[in-house]
């Protein structure tokens, strides 16, 4: 036999042995997954999708395709994994426990109040970077990680999705964009198990041409038998060895819901696992493991008899990589040493020269986009600053500013706001100071909420002495929102942000900031660039505005500013954004009538200042060019404190309708809107006078 033929024979024998080892590991993962169900606080488990996901998940992690770092799961440069179909968390938790990301005790009592293991994965769990569960968003986040991977150390990103999940729109936003970004380091495995929640035996509508649909957007696609390790691994080999031609890879794994289980009850989306059912399934799974183990041991003996010691020794090495140990008559599992302690801290402070930051004089009128453009030219010299626009780069200033320094970090995702947000989150998860931008009402609430959950879990993991994350591992992600308040003219109600703060104000951990002045905008950006500021929703005016504050002012979240007056007065106007300018003009009118007036700017809600104002003898007029965010926050404060007397000397003027209902703003000029909602300086002065007399 020729040397080349001998090599090919040995290679085939090695692969055959690896597949047999993967099948043994498959059984071990299934047994761990079953155990989670019976020992969960509610004995519940998303069995159907978890069990069908075990094979591709095991292939990726034990087949030698992914480079992960157990000593530092946060290290940038290692390969990344996203479980987009987050319902399969039990399968992933089994693998992560076996690998050593966390202790096996974590698999017990899951979904209890004291457990880190919930119904869907998130950064509470060591090694998990993105919270998933709402379907479709995980693959978009994986695409964002792959984008960062292309620009850094060219790491690979793997994601497992489901076929039911492909019914979500954001999936296709990512699938369309990934080839455009030339993400040949992205591998998406589709667990095509032909079922979903309402019907676990059939998709609610046919998706029979998934390979062709994905390929049509420029992906390299493989359709494989998702019940066979040799088939799935052959496709992963193709991804690993493929030429770097810019095409991402999709592997469609044809399977069935609950694949690998014996009981048909386990095929459903979610079940409550009874003790008898568990014991029966456990026995059958253990028997299958014995069969698989004996098949491998017989194969090993045949190798030994054939003098294939090199192949056998390599299989022993591969077994150890899979946390398996080959003995004479048994293949046992090796207990991994679990990751302990915290990952290294990150320094999130952006480096820049303060002397280069723009400063504006009192006689200037400046557009917020120009402020942002000028500031980003300074901040982006630190390569940890990145922006993602969605076909509105010309209005945010982000793209123009950052691209002048490094256009690879000035990303325009196209008309795909949900995808934009997921990509921004991915960069933030890697330690970037990330900015995304679109019209105020165009941010996807579902995505925004999931990102906020990721951030909350990160904060909890940082704060906990036993958590895996350390300081600097929170998300620094800014949502730059254009067209807030009365910024309209050619736009209609669908584009106007008069209700956005009311909606997003209910999202935990999101800082809402309404900008009134160019120098204040600079101060806010400097504050964000200090790092560790979390999620910030910053509303910027589109038209140029005058300067209210001197250059060099500092910004503090939760603090009001007083651009006019000397403390609590006879009349105290409270506003934000462009409304502050109108309040100052109203104050000038009242001053001519010898009425003492102060104006308070609340870019973020200030409980202390509003309480002091409402406790004073003066009248407080809360004037807002939106549906009354400050006024609503005041209502929450009153409910919290029980002090209803705070409303005694308070008047609210905003964009609600005459009955006080939330209301959408239609197209008009700025002056027309001020007049319609009685928010002109003259109207505000009259409102103040009438209530003083009353």
From TrEMBL:
<dbReference type="Pfam" id="PF00456">
    <property type="entry name" value="Transketolase_N"/>
</dbReference>
<dbReference type="InterPro" id="IPR029061">
    <property type="entry name" value="THDP-binding"/>
</dbReference>
<dbReference type="InterPro" id="IPR051157">
    <property type="entry name" value="PDH/Transketolase"/>
</dbReference>
<dbReference type="Pfam" id="PF02779">
    <property type="entry name" value="Transket_pyr"/>
</dbReference>
<dbReference type="InterPro" id="IPR033248">
    <property type="entry name" value="Transketolase_C"/>
</dbReference>
<feature type="domain" description="Transketolase-like pyrimidine-binding">
    <location>
        <begin position="366"/>
        <end position="547"/>
    </location>
</feature>
<protein>
    <submittedName>
        <fullName>Transketolase C-terminal domain-containing protein</fullName>
    </submittedName>
</protein>
<comment type="similarity">
    <text>Belongs to the transketolase family.</text>
</comment>
<dbReference type="Pfam" id="PF02780">
    <property type="entry name" value="Transketolase_C"/>
</dbReference>
<dbReference type="InterPro" id="IPR005474">
    <property type="entry name" value="Transketolase_N"/>
</dbReference>
<dbReference type="GO" id="GO:0005737">
    <property type="term" value="C:cytoplasm"/>
</dbReference>
<dbReference type="InterPro" id="IPR009014">
    <property type="entry name" value="Transketo_C/PFOR_II"/>
</dbReference>
<dbReference type="InterPro" id="IPR005475">
    <property type="entry name" value="Transketolase-like_Pyr-bd"/>
</dbReference>
């Amino acid at each position: 036999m020729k040397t080349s033929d001998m090599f090919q024979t040995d290679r085939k024998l090695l692969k055959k042995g690896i597949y047999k080892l993967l099948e043994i590991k498959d059984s071990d993962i299934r047994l761990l997954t079953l155990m989670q169900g019976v020992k969960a606080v509610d004995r519940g488990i998303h069995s159907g999708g978890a069990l069908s996901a075990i094979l591709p998940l095991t292939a990726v992690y034990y087949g030698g395709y992914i480079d992960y770092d157990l000593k530092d799961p946060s290290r940038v440069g290692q390969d990344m994994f996203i479980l987009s179909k987050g319902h399969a968390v039990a399968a992933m938790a089994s693998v992560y426990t076996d690998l050593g990301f966390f202790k096996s005790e974590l698999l017990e009592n899951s979904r209890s109040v004291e457990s880190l293991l919930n119904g869907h994965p998130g950064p509470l769990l060591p090694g998990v970077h993105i919270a998933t569960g709402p379907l479709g968003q995980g693959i978009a986040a994986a695409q964002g990680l792959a984008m960062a991977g292309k620009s850094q150390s060219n790491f690979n990103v793997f994601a497992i999705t489901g076929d039911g999940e492909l019914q979500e729109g954001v999936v296709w936003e990512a699938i369309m964009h990934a080839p455009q970004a030339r993400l040949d380091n992205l591998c998406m495995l589709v667990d095509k198990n032909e079922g979903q929640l309402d019907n676990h035996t059939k998709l609610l509508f046919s998706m029979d041409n998934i390979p062709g649909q994905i390929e049509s957007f420029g992906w390299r696609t493989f359709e494989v038998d998702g019940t066979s390790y040799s088939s799935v691994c052959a496709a992963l080999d193709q991804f690993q060895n493929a030429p770097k031609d810019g095409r991402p890879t999709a592997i469609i794994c044809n399977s069935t819901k609950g694949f690998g289980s014996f009981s048909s009850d386990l095929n459903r989306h979610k079940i409550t696992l009874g003790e008898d059912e568990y014991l029966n399934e456990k026995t059958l799974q253990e028997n299958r493991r014995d069969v698989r183990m004996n098949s491998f041991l017989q194969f090993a003996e045949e190798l030994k008899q054939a003098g294939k010691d090199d192949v056998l020794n390599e299989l022993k090495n591969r077994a150890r990589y899979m946390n398996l140990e080959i003995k004479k008559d048994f293949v046992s599992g090796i207990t991994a040493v679990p990751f302990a302690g915290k990952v290294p801290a990150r320094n999130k402070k952006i480096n820049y020269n303060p002397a280069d930051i723009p400063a504006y004089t009192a006689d200037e009128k400046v557009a917020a986009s120009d402020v942002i453009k000028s500031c980003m030219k300074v901040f982006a010299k630190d390569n940890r600053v990145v922006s993602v626009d969605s076909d509105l780069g010309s209005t945010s200033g982000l793209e123009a500013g950052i691209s002048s320094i490094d256009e690879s970090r000035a990303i325009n995702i196209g008309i795909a706001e949900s995808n934009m947000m997921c990509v921004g989150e991915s960069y933030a998860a890697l330690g970037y100071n990330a900015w995304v931008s679109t019209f105020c009402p165009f941010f996807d609430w579902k995505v925004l909420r999931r990102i906020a959950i990721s951030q909350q879990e990160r904060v909890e993991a940082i704060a906990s002495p036993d958590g895996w994350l350390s300081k600097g591992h929170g998300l620094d992600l800014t949502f730059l929102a254009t067209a807030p308040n009365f910024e309209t003219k050619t736009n209609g109600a669908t584009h106007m942000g008069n209700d956005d703060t009311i909606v997003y104000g209910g999202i935990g951990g999101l800082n809402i900031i309404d900008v009134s002045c160019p120098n204040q905008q600079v101060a806010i950006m400097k504050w964000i660039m200090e790092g560790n500021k979390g999620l910030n929703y910053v509303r910027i005016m589109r038209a140029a505005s005058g300067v209210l504050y001197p250059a060099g002012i500092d910004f503090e979240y939760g603090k009001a500013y007083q651009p006019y007056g000397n403390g609590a007065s006879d009349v105290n106007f409270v506003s934000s954004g462009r409304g502050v300018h109108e309040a100052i003009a109203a104050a000038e009118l009242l001053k001519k009538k010898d009425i003492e007036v102060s104006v308070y700017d609340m870019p973020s809600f200030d409980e202390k200042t509003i309480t002091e104002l409402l406790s004073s003898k003066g009248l407080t007029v809360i004037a807002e060019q939106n549906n009354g965010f400050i006024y609503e926050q005041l209502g929450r404060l009153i409910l919290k404190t029980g002090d209803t007397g705070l409303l005694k000397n308070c008047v609210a003027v905003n964009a609600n309708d005459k009955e006080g209902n939330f209301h959408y703003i239609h197209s008009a000029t700025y002056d027309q809107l001020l007049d319609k909602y009685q928010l002109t300086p003259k109207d505000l002065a009259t409102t103040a006078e009438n209530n003083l007399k009353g």
